[in-house]
Give the backbone structure.
Amino acid sequence: MSLPLKGVRILDLSSVILGPYASQILGDYGADVIKIESPEGDSTRRTGPSLQEGMAAIFLGANRNKRSVVLDLKLPRAREALLALVDTADVFMHSIRPQKLTALGIAPDTLMPRNPRLVYAGLHGFGQDGPYGGKPAYDDIIQGLSGLAALMERQGGEPRYLPTIAADKTCGLVAAHAILAALFARERTGRGSFVEVPMFESLVGYVLVEHYYGHHFDPVLSAPGYPRVLAPSRRPYRTLDGYVCMMPYTNAHWRQFFAEVGQPQLASEARFADIAARTKNIEALYALAGEFIAARSTAEWLATCERLDIPAAPMHRLEDLEHDPHLAATGFFRSVDDEVLGNVRFPGVGVRVDGSALGLTMPPRLGEHTREVLREAGLSEQQIDDVVAGSAPHVPMPPAKETTP
């Protein structure tokens, strides 16, 4: 299978999750992603359980389908090696605060004239032209500033962060599609472009898709916030023996549901007669539905919803996912046989290209491909020796043989 981004070379100087998640997506589509790391390596190499130094769980989750090069950019010869790589690259991406770029010699106005076809992607906390420009940002900061934590307060009574790194991963998706759009434009124009992906603005746009609500209008028609998803009773329904995720949504769904529980007249009540009325009275609707659902078992409701064509599913816990029959049938979870770590399992990629699943290779050891990549950039063996001597990983990690699933 020929992957869509085969032949596209990406230099990724980002770390933690935002940038690495974006470049992992591009690597899944076949791009040659070269992860440029400091001698200490990405901090996620030491985050979570591990069987080998530098190959911890969080690193494995966001760095498949990449090669690793170690460059100590404080050293002139390492910066020169990076510039040689830039000359061969299609995309240069980083998550470095903008004010630090010039000192490292990697600002857009330095690299883009050198390689006019380069797509330069800066993944920042905030847009550079606002008062927050240049400030540091992590997932928790952006979740709080974007309104997500306050949405949790409106639903549950106290502000909380979502129990997933939603800002990093959402903005990583934004970065991936922004880079793809810039590559597509380059195919038409022959020239690269500077792409800025600010986390704050990106996540605010994500949150306000439904929650801007009545503020679309002048004068405003309601407070911001979509009532259906803010309802405290919007949660998996408790059943006799567990939980079920059910979502009657259309008029027909609710007529069928109320008829099933022996209360067909409720579907005609003014509070529930159509989607506009249900949205205004959503908390009462969900609370009432919950009372009916609690009277039967999960299996009974799944069978009932199948019969009535109402969307429903069991509530999985994380440990259930590897045993889900659909994920098993589609081969979603993948394994790589690594000579150091043994059998290593990964969540796969749901996308198919021409009916085939995308490939998966083991995330790289720190600096595993330094010599290989610098040779490809045209450096001599002596130049490579000089770079490697000055940029040796601070934590020794013997490379394992590259494997494919």
